[in-house]
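Let's practice the habit of predicting before peeking. Look at the sequence and jot down your guess about where helices and strands might fall. Then scroll down.
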Amino acid sequence: MVAGGGFVGTEKVEVLLHAETHITVVSPVVAAQMREWIDAGLVHWVPRAFQDSDLEGVFVAVGATNDKVVNRRIYELSEAQGKLGNSADDPFYCNFIMSAICRRGPIQIAISSAGCSPALAQRIRTRIEQEILTEAMGELCEFLGSWRPAVREAIDGFLARKAFWEDVLDSVVPGILEGEGRSAADLAMRVFLDHYKDTVPA
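Done guessing? Here is the structure:
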């Protein structure tokens, strides 16, 4: 349950959506992005102010309203009921912290400031997304994952496979995937794997 449908509430819901759980937003009004999720059936909306009874049947509760008293009340109720409670931007009234998450395909990176500076955590997340964890990196991860069964079958031993994957990352394969696409990268990977098998001692 997330109380608050504005900017902060939207940020919290965006993180929770990846958990593939049932999300209820309690708020008199909601932002445009939240409305899209509601219309798509991803979020259930209760169009009113928070009430104590909104925690019934809930395990994770987030106070993301513009009223600190309400947010802290949500945490206190959660704590008393043995639930996870988070008062947004108020680390002393949380029993868990929601990290800033970077996602690209199967790769996930969580950044936490332990509640000291959510703004700094968001800034770090943005830099990672722009400079390191690009769309191409997510595509590369998915591509490599698709080859794991073939590599496991072709190369015996953990250390030998580890060395193989390190060599793949240093090879032309990632560049071919990004520049020429999946079919060309599959062909390059097949050639690389066949050659590697011939060089590994029996």
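How did you do? The chain has a mean pLDDT of 91.
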